[in-house]
C-alpha cells in the first residue's frame, strides 16, 4: 500500500499559474484528478500528497477544493506568503481545512539563500508549528546549511527536504558537497527527506546508474523512517513515466528489509503528514 508523498495538479492560465512554461511542452497542459487516476492505474497507490506548484493563494485554495472531492488525495501541501504581515492569520484559516497538512515556500527560486531565517518570516513559521503543520523545503545544496539552522531554531518544526535537495548529478565536486551537507542536515531528527525528483535532475543521455548512490546515501543518513517516496508527477514526465520511477524505486529497495521498504513506500509519509 503505497503513499505518493509528492505530486502536483495545475491548470494552465488559472489559479495564479506561472509554471510550467510553454517550452516544456510535455507538461504544459492541464493536469487534474482524472489524469492522476490514469497515471496510477495498475499500481498499489492508496493515497497521495498534493503539493503546490504556484506561489499563489488561488492555487492553494483550488487544490484544497479539489482534494475535498478526490479520495485518493489524502493531504495537501499549500503555499502562503510567509513574509506577509497577515501570514499567521492566513495560516490559521488554511489549517481549518482537514486535508491541509503543510506549507511550502518556493525557496529554490528566491535570490536570498537564507530567506527562511529572515525576521519577517518567523511569525509565519511559529504559526505553522502552532497549527501542527509541516514544512516542505524546496531547496538546493546551497540552502541546506540554513535548513539546519532552521531545525536548530525550531525543534518542533517538522521539515521535509523535497527531491533530495536536487543533487547535481555528474558534477563530482558538487556531489561531494551535496553528500556532506545532506549528512549534516540529517543529524536533526526533525528533518526528513523525499526520494523524489531525481530522474529530472539527470542530464540527457546520463545513465540511471547515477541515481543509485544518491538513493543509498539518503537512506544511509536519514534512515527509512525519515525517507519517503514521491513521484513528482507530472514533472517526472519530462524524463519518463510515473510507473517508470515507481518501478525503479521498487527495484532499488528489493533485498532491503521489509520494514525499510514499507517505510519508504508509505509509512514514513503517512506518519510525517499525519494522513
TrEMBL record:
<feature type="domain" description="Amidohydrolase-related">
    <location>
        <begin position="3"/>
        <end position="275"/>
    </location>
</feature>
<comment type="similarity">
    <text>Belongs to the metallo-dependent hydrolases superfamily.</text>
</comment>
<protein>
    <submittedName>
        <fullName>L-fuconolactonase</fullName>
    </submittedName>
</protein>
<dbReference type="InterPro" id="IPR006680">
    <property type="entry name" value="Amidohydro-rel"/>
</dbReference>
<dbReference type="InterPro" id="IPR032466">
    <property type="entry name" value="Metal_Hydrolase"/>
</dbReference>
<dbReference type="InterPro" id="IPR052350">
    <property type="entry name" value="Metallo-dep_Lactonases"/>
</dbReference>
<dbReference type="GO" id="GO:0016787">
    <property type="term" value="F:hydrolase activity"/>
</dbReference>
<dbReference type="Pfam" id="PF04909">
    <property type="entry name" value="Amidohydro_2"/>
</dbReference>
Amino acid at each position: 500500500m503505497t503513499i505518493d508523498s509528492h505530486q502536483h495538479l495545475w491548470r494552465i492560465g488559472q489559479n495564479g499559474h506561472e509554471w510550467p512554461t510553454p517550452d516544456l511542452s510535455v507538461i504544459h497542459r492541464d493536469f487534474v484528478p482524472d489524469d492522476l487516476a490514469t497515471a496510477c492505474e495498475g499500481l498499489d497507490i492508496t493515497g497521495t500528497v498534493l503539493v503546490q506548484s504556484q506561489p499563489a493563494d488561488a492555487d492553494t485554495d483550488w487544490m484544497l477544493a479539489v482534494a475535498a472531492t478526490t479520495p485518493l488525495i489524502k493531504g495537501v501541501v499549500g503555499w502562503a506568503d510567509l513574509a506577509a504581515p497577515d501570514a499567521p492569520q492566513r495560516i490559521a484559516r488554511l489549517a481549518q481545512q482537514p486535508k491541509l497538512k503543510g506549507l511550502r515556500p518556493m525557496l529554490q527560486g528566491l535570490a536570498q539563500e537564507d530567506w527562511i531565517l529572515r525576521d519577517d518570516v518567523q511569525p509565519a513559521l511559529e504559526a505553522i508549528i502552532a497549527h501542527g503543520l509541516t514544512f516542505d523545503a524546496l531547496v538546493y545544496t546551497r540552502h541546506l546549511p540554513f535548513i539546519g539552522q532552521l531545525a536548530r531554531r525550531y525543534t518542533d518544526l517538522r521539515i521535509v527536504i523535497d527531491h533530495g535537495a536536487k543533487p547535481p548529478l555528474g558534477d563530482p565536486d558538487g556531489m561531494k558537497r551535496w553528500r556532506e551537507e545532506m549528512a549534516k542536515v540529517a543529524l536533526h531528527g526533525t528533518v526528513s527527506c523525499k526520494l523524489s525528483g531525481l530522474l529530472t535532475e539527470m542530464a540527457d543521455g546520463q545513465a540511471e546508474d547515477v541515481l543509485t548512490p544518491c538513493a543509498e546515501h539518503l537512506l544511509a543518513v536519514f534512515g527509512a523512517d525519515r525517507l519517503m517516496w514521491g513521484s513528482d508527477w507530472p514533472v517526472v514526465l519530462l524524463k519518463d513515466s510515473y510507473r517508470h520511477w515507481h518501478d525503479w524505486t521498487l527495484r532499488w529497495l528489493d533485498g532491503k528489509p521489509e520494514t525499510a521498504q514499507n517505510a519508504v513506500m508509505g509509512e514514513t509519509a503517512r506518519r510525517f503528514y499525519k494522513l
